[in-house]
Amino acid sequence: MNAPVLAPPRFTDPTVFGRVAVLMGGTSSEREVSLDSGRNVLEALRSRGVDAFAVDGIPALLEAIGAGRVDRVFNILHGNRGGGEDGVLQGVCEALQVPYTGSGVLGSALTMDKVRTKQVWISEGLPTPRFQRIPPGGDPAGALRAAAAALGYPVFVKPSCEGSSVGVFRVLSEVDLAPAAEFAAGYPGELLAEQMIQGEELTVGILFDGTTHVALPSIHIVPAGEWYDYQAKYHADDTRYLCPGLEGAAEDEIRRLASAAFVSAGCHGWGRVDFMRDRATGALYLLEVNTAPGMTSHSLVPKAAAKLGIDYPSLCWRVLEATVGEGAHR
């Protein structure tokens, strides 16, 4: 695979986009991150002359669409249950024939569910860490203990349908299970226990250029602490980001796997695919897909795009371009 090459932008006139609702905030657990991302996107689009305005949450968007004020939606909601990554928003927009950024109903709903995404990847022969499902209810402590024993310590315990490291627990041995079990007892959804790959955390952005989905240069994430948790993602200034994260054949392989994982999950437009690389063997393992990645000052897709000379406003412009013409959601 050669170095990433994107086709030139298809449009230069911002009026082609009409009135753009930058959808942010919402009611998911990732609301604050979404608001931060949304403010940045709104400023970037306006700096390029786009007639963009902020909308907080799906009910407010429906009101704006009903009033005839929306020609297309830049979706920067994160998460589910009031976020914009679980297929609900996408279904609403398609029913109302309003173009929107990012993946459609299938890709959004599927990738919000880590368990089902892994099942698709396994069926496609793509590598992902071994895992066990933890259904809601019953005896969460016992279920977690059994799952961790089956996988072998260390493991991660995480919700199947959350993002931004919400509710993620690193369990090195049985004595570490108590906090995860306490969380599981009060969490209404499905969890998974996942084999912990010891090694490097990497991510690959995906961007549609009007013709194909291009895998951007990988990023190797090097947190100052032991792992890349919520604090390291959104607040710490001592996390290091190495781009490209790999070299030569390894960089080609991670970008190939990212593209295959993105397409096999039914995704479109733009996104980010997260990986672990085994320190001992160099093997790559797929973790998850983000269909509305963060766009904060600490976010990763803008860092990868910048490596190709695409600044933040230009990245937002390219994401919005995917809503116009052939292949756009209607």
From TrEMBL:
EC supergroup of this enzyme: ligase
NCBIfam families: D_ala_D_alaTIGR, PRK01372.1
Binding site for Mg(2+) 1: 274, 288
EC number(s) on file: 6.3.2.4
Recorded family membership: Belongs to the D-alanine--D-alanine ligase family.
Metal-binding in keyword set: yes
Catalytic reaction annotation: 2 D-alanine + ATP = D-alanyl-D-alanine + ADP + phosphate + H(+)
GO cellular component: cytosol
Name of the protein: D-alanine--D-alanine ligase
Residues holding Mg(2+) 2: 288, 290
ATP-grasp domain: residues covered: 118-321
Active-site residues, as the UniProt record annotates them: 30, 164, 299
Organism ancestry: Bacteria, Pseudomonadati, Pseudomonadota, Gammaproteobacteria, Lysobacterales
UniProt-listed PANTHER family: D-ALANINE--D-ALANINE LIGASE, D-ALANINE--D-ALANINE LIGASE B
Pathway recorded for this protein: Cell wall biogenesis; peptidoglycan biosynthesis
Keywords carried by this UniProt record: ATP-binding, Cell shape, Cell wall biogenesis/degradation, Cytoplasm, Ligase, Magnesium, Manganese, Metal-binding, Nucleotide-binding, Peptidoglycan synthesis
GO biological process: cell wall organization; peptidoglycan biosynthetic process; regulation of cell shape
InterPro entries named among the record's database cross-references: ATP-grasp, ATP_grasp_subdomain_1, D-Ala_lig_Van_CS, D_ala_D_ala, Dala_Dala_lig_C, PreATP-grasp_dom_sf
Pfam families to which the protein is assigned, alphabetical: Dala_Dala_lig_C (PF07478)
Free-text function comment from the UniProt entry: Cell wall formation.
Cofactor detail note: Binds 2 magnesium or manganese ions per subunit.
